[in-house]
Write a structure and sequence with these properties.
Length: 358
């Protein structure tokens, strides 16, 4: 999917808090975040920078934010201004509880008893009008809050007898992958996460976007066949050219050249004033700001996979002044180039590449 527009400061934001316990099936949470990210992309494609969006926070077992995950998981926890950033003004909308690893019912009960603080957090969220989303045996943590009596839920068949003994006042729906009952959305198994995400979109952003998400999140053999046939008969044209697409394509192929608004506008076949308006309307930033982000993306790759000096990388990214490059890189990434390389380099120092032992 293409990247979403940079959200406007006034765009409504719905925050999802996601506690991760030592026992949690973290893959549930990461898959759900990917679905939220896709929903943000679809919303921005339809409404631009003014579209509503989801944000999310990973929490530990005490309910405190997890600020950084290692390596490729960093994008799921670091607030770097993207779709996953949870701004201070975002509305706490839901709490997502993934399933957790437990071999049997007694072990499930043991996990719940060890995490009573999280059960209380669930109760507080429900008291504040938030929704609670559960996957599989995560339903035990939600139900132990004591706030979901007389509600309905979906569970895998192998948990039903034990759950019913522990919570006889909660009705289990047999044979239903996802149940949406007021403040509680539950899915029996991880394959129901796309349905749960669609239901959450419906609650937060309305039926129209939920229908769009449903059509994207689910396999549709009939549509796939129709698309292939239409493409083969050339009924589907190539993606239409646009001012923004022409400008960004020019930027990407001239990253190491000095910035010129006039030259960029000429490449996009519009006036400089029109080009500025398009960037502000669609991306909520200037062409120069977008160019800086593209250059910093290249710089990160070069810092990760090469041993070139920072001044050399600055030149490769269009900055003749290494000091200016460092300032801009810090602004976009939150750290200096040398620090970024220290944390993310994929190559060892030169001495590790020596063949001799002297």
């Amino acid at each position: 999917m293409p990247a979403p527009s940079v959200p406007s400061a006034t765009a409504p934001t719905f925050r999802i808090d996601i506690p991760l316990l030592p026992e949690s099936a973290a893959g549930n949470a990461l898959q759900f975040i990917d679905l939220l990210r896709s929903a943000n992309v679809l919303a921005s494609l339809r409404a631009g920078a003014a579209s509503p969006r989801f944000a999310w926070r990973l929490l530990d077992a005490e309910g405190l934010p997890i600020t950084a995950l290692p390596g490729p998981l960093a994008a799921y926890s670091q607030a770097a201004g993207g779709a996953h950033d949870a701004p201070s003004g975002s509305r706490a909308f839901a709490l997502f509880l993934p399933s957790f690893h437990a071999a049997d019912i007694p072990l499930i009960r043991s996990v719940v008893s060890r995490h009573q603080r999280l059960s209380r957090l669930v109760g507080l969220a429900l008291d504040q009008g938030q929704k609670v989303l559960t996957v599989g045996n995560g339903a035990w943590l939600a139900a132990s809050s004591g706030r979901l009596q007389d509600r309905q839920a979906s569970l895998p068949w192998f948990y039903m007898a034990g759950f019913e003994r522990d919570f006889p006042d909660i009705r289990l729906i047999a044979g239903q992958d996802v149940t949406d009952d007021g403040p509680w959305l539950s899915c029996a198994l991880p394959h129901g996460l796309s349905d749960m995400a669609t239901a959450l979109v419906r609650h937060a952003m309305g039926d129209e976007l939920a229908q769009v998400c449903a059509s994207v999140f689910h396999p549709d053999p009939e549509r796939a066949r129709a698309a292939l046939q239409a493409n083969a008969q050339q009924h589907i044209p190539a993606t239409r050219d646009s001012t923004l697409a022409r400008a960004i394509a020019y930027m990407e192929s001239h990253l190491d050249e000095p910035y010129s608004l006039a030259r960029l506008a000429e490449a996009a076949a519009v006036s400089p004033r029109t080009l500025l308006r398009h960037f502000q309307l669609e991306l909520s930033q200037s062409p120069l700001d977008h160019l800086h982000s593209l250059r910093c993306a290249r710089a990160k790759v070069l810092l990760e996979v090469t041993l070139e000096s920072v001044p050399s990388i600055a030149v490769a990214c269009g900055y003749s002044d290494p000091a200016a490059f460092r300032r801009i890189f810090v602004r976009h990434t939150g750290m200096a180039p040398a620090e970024y390389r220290k944390r993310h380099a994929l190559r060892a120092p030169r001495r590790r590449w020596r063949v001799d032992v002297s």
